[in-house]
Amino acid sequence: MRPVTRRQADHHAARSGTTRAQVMSTLKRLLDSGEFFSDISVQRITEEAGVSRATFYAHFHGKSDVLVRLADDLRESLLTLARQWDPGRGQDGADRFARFFEEVITIHRAHQGVLTALREAASYDPAVGDFYTADLEGFDEAVVGTLLAEQAAGSTAADLDAVAASRIIVWGGNQAIAQHIKADDGSGDAVFARELARIWWHGAYRRPVTAPHGRRDT
């Protein structure tokens, strides 16, 4: 048998990458058009992408695998954005948070079909459900880290339970953003981002310290 050359291997890898991208973009397009993930079959994806069923299964375990890979690319971009956010020591944290959330909402809107499908499939597909949980846990971990760092610096109230607070604002915030995008045409994004930012900033990062006997220190 003739050995596979480096050029042949590179060509095969490039073709495989093109095929994967073709299938993934096809599913994203179908989802963006408003179709439910549960209604989209593998046959539909292969026909729309112009690949054979055998080729599809040579690259993906199934349509849920395609969805997870789409969502994984999105998760990395959002996590990078979240990890770059630094509460800082200034007084404009709520304003900077608002700008951060406007970016987040813009990304969510651009990938609304994928995110909606992810939430849908997570309710009945264990593999997607595990990914969805791990996805939010990644953001949860990042927020816990910043809250603990702020407490250590004396900027966040010592009586804040960082783990519980993060769980509330991350998981609750995710659902709130999803509902906002579903109900709003985009004209209210700035206002929504501002209110979400103030809730995060003043409710957790800069919560007033509670003094003994229920008094609040100012």
Any chance you could write out the topology, listing elements then pairs?
Blueprint: H1 6-32, H2 42-49, H3 53-59, H4 63-84, H5 93-110, H6 112-122, H7 126-152, H8 162-183, H9 189-205
Helix pairs in contact: 1-2, 1-4, 1-6, 4-6, 4-7, 5-9, 6-7, 7-8, 8-9
Describe the fold and architecture.
The chain is mostly helical. The protein has two domains: 1-60, Homeodomain-like (Arc Repressor Mutant, subunit A, Orthogonal Bundle); 63-214, Tetracycline Repressor, domain 2, CATH 1.10.357. Helices cover 73% and strands 0% of the residues. It has nine helices and no strands. The chain is elongated. It starts with 5 loop residues before the first helix and ends in a 13-residue tail after the last helix. The model is unreliable at 8-12 (pLDDT under 50).
Can you give me a brief rundown of this structure?
This protein has 218 residues and is mainly α. The chain has helices spanning 6-32, 42-49, 53-59, 63-84, 93-110, 112-122, 126-152, 162-183, 189-205. The protein starts with 5 loop residues before the first helix and ends in a 13-residue tail after the last helix.
Task: Predict the CATH topology of the largest domain.
Answer: Tetracycline Repressor, domain 2
Mean pLDDT comes to 86
Element string (H = helix, E = strand): HHHHHHHHH
Number of domains: 2
Radius of gyration: 22 Å
**CATH class membership of the largest domain:** Mainly Alpha
- Can you tell me the residue ranges where pLDDT is under 50 for at least 5 consecutive residues? 8-12
Structural class: mainly alpha
